[in-house]
Amino acid sequence: MRILIVNPFGIGDVIFTLPLIRNLKKxxxxxHIGYLSNRRTYPILSVQPEIDSLYVYxxxxxRSLYKTSRIKTIIKFGSFLKSIKRMKxxxxxxxxxxxxxxxxxxxxxxxxxxxxxxxxxGIFLNKKIKMSGYxxxxxxxxxxxxxxxxxxxxxxxxxxxxxxxxxxxxGNDEVAELKNRSNLIISLxxxxxASWGSQAYKKRWEEEKYKELLNxxxxxxxxxxxxxxxxxxxxxxxxxxxxxxxxxxxxETSLLEFAALISVSDLVVTNDGGPVHIxxxxxxxxxxxxxxxxxxxxxxxxxxxxHRIMSLKLNCRPCYKNFRMPSCSHHRCLDELSAGxxxxxxxEHLSLIKHEK
Length: 357
Fold this sequence. Notes:
By secondary structure, this protein is α/β, with parallel strands linked by helices. The chain has 2 domains: 2-150, Rossmann fold (3-Layer(aba) Sandwich), CATH 3.40.50.2000; 165-356, 3-Layer(aba) Sandwich (Rossmann fold), CATH 3.40.50.2000. The protein has helices spanning 11-15, 18-27, 42-46, 59-68, 70-85, 99-107, 139-144, 165-181, 207-220, 231-237, 255-263, 274-281, 295-298, 332-335, 339-356; strands at residues 2-6, 32-37, 53-56, 91-94, 112-118, 127-131, 185-189, 224-227, 246-248, 267-271, 286-289, 307-310. The strands form 2 sheets. Strands 3-2-1-4-5-6 form a 6-stranded parallel β-sheet. Strand 10 (267-271), helix 12 and strand 11 (286-289) form a beta-alpha-beta unit. Helix 8 (165-181) packs across helix 11 (255-263). It starts with a strand and ends with a helix.
């Protein structure tokens, strides 16, 4: 049995598919699992033992090549399709919600094409579930429940990431000195939500409030603090004051190193986005800040005491529905959340974590 999973979205979305993959591997233990992803999520998928082959589809790269040379684009895309066709997949789970992928897999002759039919874009899927958006349950459950289209029962409802031992060892070595000073390591991640592109700021609590939170933590909590993020987060944050309890890794790590530092943390504080789902997949406690997006659909999973959500009870939230967010002039859901509010919740969460330890 050869099965292809297609998910061209962000890190969190890809992590949501891991239970689906484990369900398939349990049912078909000798199956070959392929995965089509974007380039940003490739490193995470490349080290998951259940995945046997990977295909990168990065639309911006194809657009850029097309502007340079149409002939080169046609030749390269033909080669890309041949690499998928060569594998002779029996089943594809198309999670893209885009009709173009279903068409491609129909052309390639994959007999069973499964997925959700959004706005009639699933015309080339021959086994599908009609939907208008993700709203009634968590994304993990939406993806896991697709096995019902094969007459199977969904058994796994938890995410679990794997990392090479060498990368985990690197993470432990990096924080060893900090752990000598404190038995508590907290990762503070002010970014996340990069898959929203230029709109990512709508999911993010302000950097200035994260700075306030950091100062409160340094004054009142005995903990080593890791500042994590990409180069964009580093440029937005600016200069980080030197402190023997703070290690700044913003813009300094690969994605796997970033994940390793999360995996050796005791708590992760971050926005709605990929980092919180990486932490949840390592069973690391989280405190995440949610604004326009529903935590019941896109929050850390499984929903248990390890994960706390900071969100305001407003009549207008969550406003992100059916993959659309209305124009908003106030952003109260994030702007009215103070550093003091988050710090209070953080201290309460830490007391529970220390008790469970």
